C-alpha cells in the first residue's frame, strides 16, 4: 500500500518574519491601514492568505506588529534622558531628525504613527486610538521635560509648558504631512529652524 503525504499548510520554511514585516510596514506607511488590503499584503510579502493568518493572526495584529517594528527601526525618538541636555536641545534634535527622516528618499515619506490611521472608519477606532496614544505620550514626555527646565531656571517661570509641548508636537506632525506632500529635507529643515526660533528666551 502506498501513501501520499499531504502538503503542509502555513508559512514556508524560508519565511523571514523581519523581512515580511518590513514589506507590510512600507505598504501601511505609504497607503494607510484601511487602504491596504490583505490581498496586497500577501502579494507583496510573497505568502498565501492562510500563511499570513498563520504567521500574524489577522490584519490588525499584523498592523500592530508593524507599528512596533517601525518604532524599533525607523521612528524618531525623544531622548528625554540625555545627560546635560536641556528641553531645547532635545527639541532641536527632534526637529532635525524629523526633517532628515520624514523626507528620506529611501523610505516612504512622513511618519507611520501620524498618518497610517487617518480617515479610518469606525471599525478601526481602536487602532486610531492606539496611535493617538503614542503621539500623546511623546507630547506629555516633552511637557515634563519643559517643566523640569522651568524648575532648573533654564526657562522663564511663566513658560506655558503644556502649550509649548503642544506647539512642537503640532510642528512635527505638520512636517510629516509636508513630507507626504513632497517637501524636501531642506524645506523641512527651514521649518525646523523657524519653529525653534519660537523657543522662549
From TrEMBL:
Keywords: DNA-binding, Transcription, Transcription regulation. Residues 37-56 bind DNA. Residues 14-74 form the HTH tetR-type domain. It holds the Pfam family TetR_N. Gene3D superfamilies: Homeodomain-like (1.10.10.60), Tetracycline Repressor, domain 2 (1.10.357.10). The keyword Ribonucleoprotein does not apply. PANTHER family: HTH-TYPE TRANSCRIPTIONAL REGULATOR YJDC (PTHR47506:SF1), TRANSCRIPTIONAL REGULATORY PROTEIN (PTHR47506). This is TetR/AcrR family transcriptional regulator.
